[in-house]
Each structure stands twice: as C-alpha cells, then as structure tokens.
From TrEMBL:
Positions that bind pyridoxal 5'-phosphate: L105, T106, F133, P134, S135, D136, D218, H221, Y243, W274, N302
Record protein name field: Kynureninase
Taxonomic path: Bacteria, Pseudomonadati, Bacteroidota, Flavobacteriia, Flavobacteriales
Stretches of the chain forming a coiled coil according to its record: none
EC number: 3.7.1.3
Function description: Catalyzes the cleavage of L-kynurenine (L-Kyn) and L-3-hydroxykynurenine (L-3OHKyn) into anthranilic acid (AA) and 3-hydroxyanthranilic acid (3-OHAA), respectively.
Organism: Flavobacterium saccharophilum
Length: 425
C-alpha cells in the first residue's frame, strides 16, 4: 500500500480497520479538554471501560458474602486464577496447564530462577542482553551473589556492535556457543524495552538447549504484543507483567509459564506455598507439600483477587479479538507511523533516526526515535499538546501505537503536532 500523509487517507484507513471500534471501549486522559494521543501502552495500558464492573463484582461479593466469597461468589475466589488458563494460553502459545497468574514480574522471575538456575561445577554462567531492563540486571546480580559467584564473572552480556543500536542474532548464537559448557541459563527480554527489538525466541531457545542450558524469557514487552509459541518453541519458563499491552492496571499481577516437560520432575527445586498445594486437599492443611500439576504448582500465596479482576477483564477482551487480528493491525499502523515520521522529517529538514529494526519480524508495537538536534523541550511540547509519549536518555522518544486503542488518524495528528513543535521553536 502507498501511504499518504493526509487526514482523509488516515480516516479511510480507520474506516477499513476491523478493530477501530475497540478504541471506544477505553478511557483516555484529556489534555486541554481533548482526548490524548496515547503512545505509552508499552509502559501502562489504558483502562478498558468494562474493567470497573469486574472489580465491582468482587467488591459486592466481599460485602455480601465476606469469607464465603471464596466458594460462593459469582466467580469463586479460591479458583479465580483458573479462569486465566484458557485465554492466556492462547496469548502466549501454551497449553492451559503451562500458565498461571501470581505475584508480580520480577518476583516471578526470581521464583522461577530458583527452579531453573542451578549452577553446578563449571556450568554457572548466565547470558543476557546488554542493557537489559534494570530490574533484570539487579535480579541477575543478586541471584549469582546468592549462589556465591561474582556478577562480573557469572553474567555474560551480549553486546551491540560498535555504531549499531540492535543486537544481531548471529552474535547471540555465537556467544551461546562460546560460553558453551559453562552456560547454565539464557534469560533475555523477548522485546528490548529501549529499542523495541524483537528477539528470535525460537532460534535462541534451541541454541541454548543445544549448549546444555535452560532458557527463560522476560516477556514484559512481548506478552499481548507479539506472536508467541512458548510450548512449541520448547521454552523452559517465562514471565510477563500484565499492565503494559494487556491493560490490567498499574503494577498488577504477573503471568508465568512453565513448560509441561518440567511438571512431573520431582527433583526440580522450588519455593513452595499453600496455594501451590494439591487443590483438592488444600484445606486439609497437610504438613507435606504436594504441588498442583502444572504451572499452578509454582504458586505460593492466596491470590489477590482484586488485582486479578482487571486482568481477567483484559484477557477476555484479548480472547474476543484474537492475537492474529491484533498483530495484523499492529504491523500496519506501526508502518504508517514510521511513514509519518519520515514525511515530517523531510518537511522540517530534521534528522530523526528510528532505532527500532525496520524488519517487521524484528519489531512490534513500538518505534524508538532518536531525535538528533532536538532536546527535552520537544518532548515537553508534545506532552503539553496532548501526545502522551515516553522520553529515554539521551534523546529518544518511544512511541507505541497499540492496535486496540490507537487510530490511524492519531498517527496523522501526531505528525502535525510534531511538525509544529519543531518549526515553532
């Protein structure tokens, strides 16, 4: 398709968009009494309008039933998390028994590393990407310290080549082969939070296994955003947050995946808790832990139902839409945004550098733009004029045209506001 930088063309694209009506199912902040253009769903998704009803249902059951809500609520609390199995399994490409919800993202990654980071002898090293999200870096450092190793020795970062913004797949594979029989774990972010680069999860997982290591993924920026086939790709474990592309609310519950090949391994260590115990015998208060079969056996505590309610509202919307439809629009609207950026760049004689890969297979719902010659004042201008975006040092704005609630006309309007912000200086 040949794009055009006109309002009429953008509106025509919206009229052809089968997901366009979902925009009306979300609540948008306003700036200057006008609905914002929202580009930060890669940080915190918008609130779906029907979320409140899910929370109110729990509140009403609590008010009317108190403790009996565990068994007699409209959605009984004691098995509330089981409602996620089917829709989440489709979002991440898993068997229903391989997924569950619990805790928050870094907590879950720590708990999963108890099972899957088991250094022994010379096999103790962890491979991650350079400049992983800081929470992951702190997690790696504390884990290797806990096992008695030094981070500078045990943590191996895959570097970007000089002058390049993204990590090459061949460099990932070469580093895995180089570390070889010293490698205990590969744990990488499925989508890099800064550049928006999507990693080849299938190929990297196979390479890690070939080297004799376990392979896990931090899918914070991937779940609900890219096509995942965690079961078929033979991923050992993964975890993700729910508040970015899945719109469940700030700091909300995390999802996690454990491949079925590990479900019946009695020698696999884990930190146990009551809620991971045999569901049918949980209230017998037995002294010996008998884990639930599947990912649910990694649960520890009674689950926070008030947090799960908005997450359930979201995954049910995803089940209605389907990942294939989301990804089709994601690719198209991201390409249109890229076109708009290049057009405005030409009009203002600027120097915008999109550091996100241009290959659609290596990117998702994010374009990270290096604004050469521009500064924080342009970001401030965008925010004051109703474009909610994200600034990252030294001079990058991250734009996430989330397909559920961003329109093509939003992309056009953003371009016009961006142009005024540059020319008006």
């Amino acid at each position: 398709m040949t794009f055009q930088n006109t309002r009429e063309f953008a509106r025509e694209l919206d009229s052809q968009d089968t997901l366009n009506h979902y925009q009306e199912q979300f609540i948008f902040p306003k700036v200057n009494d006008k609905r914002v253009i929202y580009f930060t769903g890669n940080s915190l998704g918008l609130q779906p309008k029907h979320t409140k009803a899910y929370i109110d249902e729990v509140m009403n059951d609590w008010a009317e039933l108190a403790v009996e809500g565990h068994f007699y609520a409209q959605k009984p609390w004691w098995d509330y998390q089981e409602r996620f199995a089917e829709p989440l399994s489709k979002i991440v490409g898993a068997l229903p028994s391989e997924v569950t919800v619990m805790n928050t993202l870094t907590v879950n990654l720590h708990l999963l590393m108890v099972s899957f980071y088991q250094p022994k002898g010379k096999r103790y090293k962890i491979i991650c990407e350079e400049k992983a999200f800081p929470s992951d870096q702190y997690m790696f450092q504390s884990q290797v310290h806990f096992h008695g190793y030094k981070p500078e020795d045990a943590i191996v970062e895959i570097k970007r080549r000089e002058g390049e913004h993204n990590i090459r797949l061949e460099d990932v594979l070469a580093k895995i082969e180089e570390v070889g029989d010293e490698l205990a774990l590969v744990l990488i972010g499925g989508v890099n939070y800064y550049t928006g680069q999507v990693f080849d999860i299938k190929t990297i997982t196979a390479a890690g296994h070939k080297a004799g290591a376990k392979v896990g993924w931090d899918l914070a920026h991937a779940a609900g955003n890219i096509k995942l086939e965690l079961h078929d790709w033979n991923v050992d474990f993964a975890a993700w947050c729910s508040y970015k592309y899945m719109n469940s609310g700030p700091g909300n519950a995390s999802g996690c995946f454990v491949h079925e090949k590990h479900h019946n391994d009695p020698d696999l260590p884990r930190f146990a808790g009551w809620w991971g115990h045999n569901k049918e015998r949980r209230f017998k208060m037995e002294p010996t832990f008998d884990p639930v079969h599947g990912a649910g056996g990694w649960q520890i505590s009674n689950l926070p139902v008030l947090s799960l309610a908005p997450y359930l509202a979201s995954v049910e919307m995803f089940a209605e839409v389907g990942m294939d439809a989301l990804i089709a629009k994601r690719d198209h609207i991201t390409s249109y945004l890229e076109f708009i950026l290049h057009e405005i760049d030409k009009e203002v004689k600027g120097n915008f550098e999109v550091i996100t890969p241009s290959n659609p297979l290596e990117r998702a719902s994010q374009l990270s733009v290096f604004l050469h010659g521009e500064g924080r004042s342009l970001f401030d201008y965008l925010m004051k004029n109703g474009v909610i975006t994200d600034w990252r040092e030294p001079n990058v704005i991250r734009l996430a045209p989330v397909p559920l609630y961003c329109s093509y006309e939003d992309m056009y309007d953003f371009g016009q506001i961006l142009k005024k912000g540059i020319l008006g200086k």
